Amino acid sequence: MKCSVQMPVLPIETVAIILMISGLSKMQSVSSPPLFYPFGTGAGDTVCPKVDDTNSSVINLTSPFSFFGRSYPQIYVNHNGFLTFDQASSNYTPIQFNSSYSGRDIIAPFWTDIDNRLNGIISYNLYTVGNVLSRATQDINQYFTGVSLSALWVFVATWDKVAYYNNSGTESSFQVVLISTGSSSFVLMNYGVIAKLNWTTEAGYASSTQNFTILWETNKVDVNLSSSSNVGIPGRWAFWVNGAPDNSITTTLSTTTPFSSTSATSSTTAASTTTPFSSTSATSSTTGTVCKALFVCCDSYDLFAYFINVF
Ligand SMILES: [Ca+2]
Question: Residue ranges of the NIDO domain (predicted)?
């Protein structure tokens, strides 16, 4: 994915031509969203059983993950689209993340009633060496200005083209990435296509002291998470979760929010005109983010992301 040399920032016309000539056929055959970290059996993932409303076995982390004042040596992948630390959960109906939340600590890229018996694969991997650590290090240092940290381990859980309960054939893809540097903890959420659904759904995180809601819906919804972001890159959200007041991200949100929810939604436009992290000052403009990305990425997947970002 990465170049060994820097690329110049290309005029958009040139990018379009490159896409048409060399990248389009590849884009059409892409089976995984470009933002996603490696996943699946080809990446050496552990694949979860095809069982509804269940969870992975306990996954022991390389070192404890710090999450808003608590430190967890293990984690669970719950099939209905979320991670928990102290105990697995089969709950298929989300609990709203707000100041009244009293549930267990949770990171939920997309909590709803998923059923991987029908179609799709849920899998996970814990990396302690290799390119994934380099990629995570690059991502957190890009998004959180002032951060100069290296990933110690990276945990990736992916829901690839999974179905909703009682809706065989629906396909939704999303991913959550936990990054520990030892002293700090970060979460990335990556979204591909999310199928329409008719069930309560939620994306965000919650602890006893902090919560953040990307999406909360209690009825039928066309969930457009793949075009939402708090870092100016459609389909990606990034959080610093070991103590920073991430609720500050809720400042000045856009009029182009992709959801009807009243929660802390954001969008590419919002991220491009606001500073999503008050204490860390993530990228302040979409253009800046894209240009920086072009310096380090050079295949058509990333150019495709560029293309989407521009238009
Ligand atoms: Ca389910």
Answer: 109-244
> Regarding predicted confidence, which is higher, 8 or 297?
8
Ligand 1 geometric centre to CA of 165 (Å) = 6
CA 155 to ligand 1 center in whole angstroms: 22
Distance 33 CA to ligand 1 centre (A): 23
240 alpha carbon to ligand 1 midpoint, in Å? 29
Structure tokens at 253: 């949100």
Amino acid code (one letter) for 168: S
Residue 117, Cβ density class (10 Å: 0-12 exposed, 13-18 middle, ≥19 buried): middle
Mean pLDDT of the residues in the chain: 75
Check the CA dihedral 280-286-291-293 and report its sign.
Answer: positive
What does the domain layout of the chain look like in residue ranges? 46-240
Model pLDDT for residues 84-137, shown as the tens digit of each residue: 999 999 999 999 999 999 999 999 999 999 999 999 999 999 999 999 999 999
